[in-house]
Amino acid sequence: MVSMTNPAPTRGYTATKDNLQSRLRRIEGQVRGIERMVEDDRYCIDILTQISAIQAALDKVALGLLDGHARHCMHEGAQEGRADEMASELMAAVGRLMKRG
């Protein structure tokens, strides 16, 4: 809960938060769909195809968050004299995203 004396911080995704939450709910539904596919003994390749679609959707969400972070959070960090720290943090996040499989 956010109090009036201590409002929630503005994040890079604040302006698109509703869209982000909608995308995440859709992804959640896709994951539940895969669970049903496994329960129903569906063909392996069909399940893998759905997993690939979910990964692509998550990648799109991640890229949007990275974009918002670079445009908003890093800008604020640079104004506060923390540009190097923010760049290192961003690159570490990109590195974690790329280390799949």
TrEMBL record:
<dbReference type="InterPro" id="IPR038390">
    <property type="entry name" value="Metal_Tscrpt_repr_sf"/>
</dbReference>
<keyword id="KW-0186">Copper</keyword>
<comment type="similarity">
    <text>Belongs to the CsoR family.</text>
</comment>
<dbReference type="GO" id="GO:0046872">
    <property type="term" value="F:metal ion binding"/>
</dbReference>
<dbReference type="GO" id="GO:0045892">
    <property type="term" value="P:negative regulation of DNA-templated transcription"/>
</dbReference>
<dbReference type="GO" id="GO:0003677">
    <property type="term" value="F:DNA binding"/>
</dbReference>
<protein>
    <recommendedName>
        <fullName>Transcriptional regulator</fullName>
    </recommendedName>
</protein>
<dbReference type="InterPro" id="IPR003735">
    <property type="entry name" value="Metal_Tscrpt_repr"/>
</dbReference>
<dbReference type="Pfam" id="PF02583">
    <property type="entry name" value="Trns_repr_metal"/>
</dbReference>
